[in-house]
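Input:
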Amino acid sequence: MTEPSKLADGDTPYLKIRNVTKRFDNFVALQDINLDIKRGEFISFLGPSGCGKTTLLRAISGLDVQTTGSIEQDGRDISNLPVNQRDFGIVFQSYALFPNLKIKDNVGYGLVSAGKSREEIRTRVAELLTMVGLADQAEKYPSQLSGGQQQRVSLARALALSPGLLLLDEPLSALDARVRARLRGEIRELQQRLGITTVMVTHDQEEALTMSDRIVVMSKGKIEQIGSPDDVYRAPASPFVADFIGRMNFIPGTLVSGTSADCKGAVLSFSTALTYAQGTPITICLRPEDIVVRDIASSSNAVDVEVGVMEFMGNHFATTLHVSGTHLNVSADLSMNDVRDLSIKPGSKVKAGLPADRLRVFSTT
Amino acid sequence: MIRRAIGIALVAFSATAAHSQELNVYTALEADQVKAYQAAFEKANPSVKIRWVRDSTGVVTAKLLAEKANPQADVVFGLAATSLMLLDKEGMLQAYAPAGLDKIKPTMRDPANPPKWVGMDIWASAICFNTVEAGKKKIAAPQSWADLLKPEYKGQVAMPNPASSGTGYLMVSGWLQMMGEEKGWKFMDGLHQNIAAYSHSGSKPCRQAAAGEYAVGFSFEYRANKTKKDGAPIEAILPSEGLGWDMEAAAIMATTKHAAAAKKLLDWSVTPEANKLYAQNFAIVALPGVQEKLTHISGDVEKLLAKNDFVWAAANRERILAEWIKRYDGKSEKK
Amino acid sequence: MSTAALQEPWAKSDNPAAPIPVHQKMSRDDLIMRIALCVLAAWLVIAVLLPLGALLIKSFEGPDGGFVGVSNFALFFANPSLTQSISNSLSIAIVSTVICVLLSFVFAYGLMRTCMPGRGIFKLISQVPLLAPSLLPAISLVYLFGNQGFAKSMMLGQSIYGPIGIGIGEVFWTFPHALIIMITALSTSDARLYEAASALKASAWRTFWTVTIPGARYGLISATFVVFTLVVTDFGVPKVIGGQFNVLATDIYKQVIGQQNFRMGAVVGLLLLLPAVFSFAVDQWVQRKQSAAMSSRAVAYEPKPDAFVDTAFLVICGLIAAAILTVIFTALFASLATLWPYNLTPSFKNYDFDNMDGGGWQSFFNSLRMAGFTAVFGTAIIFSGAYLMEKTKGFGAGRFVFQFLALLPLAVPGIVLGLGYIFFFNSPANPFNFIYGTTTILVVCSIAHFYSVAHLTAVTALKQIDQEIETVSSSLRVPFYRTFFLVTLPVSLPAVLDIAMYLFVNALTTVSAVVFIYSPQTTLASIAVLNMDDAGDVAPAAAMAMTIFFAATAVRVVYTGLVRGVLGRTQAWRHR
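Output:
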């Protein structure tokens, strides 16, 4: 079991969320949420729609305050402050640019009300536009820019007042795949350069995995797991997280000992010892890419398998493997090299390893 | 804050009203008459300005009665005497003897002294008969009310609705007095068979006859004279049995806050200048010696005027109208 | 290891015994917006709700002002000529509605589902009746089919005065209202349903009944109720051409104006409110159904040329358009004839309004002024109201009440609202009594009467703007009014102009909303048409109606130019 990452003692969190609950009539959207976010950290709220991630973001921003609980930002209790008394910049999926204002006026929008001089505004706007790589687009209208460009403008506008906190609400969802991939890197790079504490809401695990320092996986108004991208991928704290992030084999079985289980006739051993009694029903999780067909180590559960359906995925084959002599089927991602070198095709009989240290076991009760 | 704003507005409102000496004058005179009267009066009395509220006799009467609790009018100028008597009965009129009252015909004023109302002119019923349409349809010109019961006039007669039109009421009241109630209603029952439309105003039937919409339009002598003068192919006919008539008169409202200005208007009403203006429109006016014959009316209006008991006509107005509405209004779509 | 393993040390933080609910502090923006919304709601209460309340109270009042229960209603139902009006009103409305909805459906079908030539022109002509008061078609009918009408023979001996005239006049006047609904209904259908039908080899007839009609059914229902209400509550047409055929709307006028019987007027007014409220409820229901039925994945239907169908619709639509133009040109012709029907020499004699009933040319200028004020103040009030209702944060109850007040006028016939105004504003106890008899009350009444449609237009426009714009602004600590003037208003400019246009034309042509509250100093052109017709000056009435028509047309043309020209330049950001 992996220890979830937490703040070192004495390190005061920048954003401190305590016992936050949000109810809409009888529906509980957030249930007793506790979360600390470090200064300069990039945090993603990840989960399916309806999990409460957007509700939590809206509570932080003050757009929809929590029913109970408190939120502290930089030592200041902001729980009941209206939006315009909080300190954040926000970027929406829809960009929410002012369609009738030029790019420079969009970026400088907040600066005018902040009482800055004309000269200061011009300098700051130029600086911000250069920062997001749009210095030459200042005189254009939003509709004349591409989606990716518009989102950069939106980002520049959010950063104009140098807020302490940057909120990103599904910032990349409206963009096409290539632009999305590029902007991911750009936003992360910018965030690290500015050192601004950032909270992003997303339903896209890839986005969360590539950009975040830590990921908060949420489901049904509760936090399922908090951890680094590697943690949540490698060591999902619950079947939900295991299922939601990446692809996963869920193998039902019953314990035969502290370190092995009978799964539909195949006895699989795993490295972490369990204290449950024999016969306890369990679920074993195994990522398809962790199944090996070559160089099978002794620590792996080596089994004979028959290859079933093979789906060509470009850089690998998604295959179904039937463990001979059992009722167990598993999905495995086989590399192009494996398939070519071992001449694997549907119906082939090969040896496969289900590495014991890659098996995650959850009690089903 | 709001209350203060309203207060200021109210003050400004009443201030303007006080300065220009505006008189709210309710009238049933024709729109084409009031202009000349107003111009002449305001020329003689530059300090007073008239604000007209004009509608047909029935409407003005009903409006005055409805506003009894909070009257808006200062003067009633040019309303049927029968209506004024009704208002007098409600105690809504102020007695005043205008300067020169002694010169007008004694029959043309309230007998009380000082009078509650002063007559201006007499307006009598007349028939507008479209000679062109009559020629086409081979309809003879009617000479009497009785003629109009003949089947040849079926669907060719328009008449003002007595509930809204003073002209309509003076006809109905005239028939009932000339023929007696029973015969009068019987006559109207017969007439109803020939009537094509009852109109809101007393002028409309004549104008409809002028446009050939119907061959016969019951109206009054001013409108007949004027319409013919404007070139319509009509004949103004005064039926031989006699003419229903009423008196147009003026009175001051008991509640007026502008009594001085109101009296000026009443004073002006009995002057020869005013009567000369009336005489351009009506055959009989209050001041003797002023009246002249209307160009397009043949026949002597004064001689044909039926016996008319104003007191009776005023006292029975409500009952007669109710009976009339019951008999002829609404239920009477033409099949 | 199990799911229960999620036992984070920090999750066990000090749990308060009873969590204290968080109440967000109100920002200055929120406070200002709530107050502004309340002020506008108060305005609507004064302009709509209280006059209706006064009407309701009046209907239960006796001659001396005391409460008399339902005795006024008993009196009404005891009078056979008044109850006859109910059945007259209903029967004429049913017949007019059926004809109008059928014609508008056919016309809309021609516009939306065929390739007949001249669709643009046809659509333009179909909107012409909106530019004139409802009195105009009735007056034209007198000249067309009256006893001296040049098409009298077409009446086959029937009289135009009465149900036939009312029916034709109402169909003319309500046609564009029904058509707009039908066009919307027919524009939302899914082409794929037609492709599926033809792939299944359904006949055109069967496709029509199984695809077209069900697709347009909400439009048909909506149009039916809208037209029905308009006919039942219209008073212009029956006033002019109804003859002795009494309907409720003319009864109310007779009771109030003719006999000054306000209590009975209030009773009839309440009765007129019934069909309007009912059809309002049906319309709301239909709107919900229709928006649910519309799929965003629907593919727009593109009609294919079909010589037979296109020609057939060209003939039908051509006839309808010709009928509309005939009505307008008849009024124009009659207004220019020196003495109909005996002297047809053209002259402007009938335009010499100063020597006639109705207040003369001054009425026309009063109307322009009144319509102008209505457009300017109405647009400002209505758009601000819609904005505040959409954008005020929280305050659910306040916004709900405002929405109700804003939609209420849709269910109140103009003549009923006007009557309520007499009772409410003419009372000396009312602090607003001073606006009685002024242009102000006419403007207030017109804004209130036409509030709902303009409000819905504004709401639709506001909903099309990204909702997050306000969020971004407040996160940038920009006050809401700055964003309103810098962004929301400029972006909504087309809708704002639309609203102003709608208010102007309707205020110019309305009769029913203002007939009870104009004063000798504030006579209006549309009322002048009524009064001149009443006095028998039918040709001058036609002349005044045409004057209104030309003014409305001119404003429309200017508006179109404005939209094309000015918007084209100032709204460069709309184009890529």
